[in-house]
Amino acid sequence: MAKSIWILLVIVAWYDYEIWQMDVKTNFLNGFVEEEIYMDQPEGFTTVGEEQKNEHDPFVYKMISGSSIVYLVLYVDDILLIGNDIKVLGGIEAWLPTQFFMKDMGEASNILGIKIYRDRSKRMLGLTQSSYIAKVLKRFKMENSK
């Protein structure tokens, strides 16, 4: 999964695509179920319209409509919308909350605990885990380490 995200971030930087983030409310995940539930999709099962779904990474979806390209990346309760057409992205961004409880996070600034910084004029996108490193150092009482 992480490789797919990194590859898409390269595409975002190279082609200067938009990258937006949405957060799915997870209230439904916190309900109580008394029984153990096991689920597995039957072999050969195909959902109509998903016959050509990406088998290598089932959490990355791609839509092409004319010259518009949109990638939707789903990771647990986070969604990244990546694409080259603001109008199409805006339509998807407006439609998703009608189907799920969601919060629009705007332009992506943090993915999987990794901070994103971007200089669009240079088509540069950087990643840092400095806040995570600081948190680990504090946890082990090593904040003053060099």
UniProtKB/TrEMBL annotation:
- Keywords, comma-separated and alphabetical: Signal
Against Pfam families, the record matches this protein to: RVT_2
* Domain Reverse transcriptase Ty1/copia-type residue range list: 3-53, 61-145
The superkingdom of the source organism is: Eukaryota
Give the signal peptide range.
1-21
Q: What is this protein called?
A: Reverse transcriptase Ty1/copia-type domain-containing protein
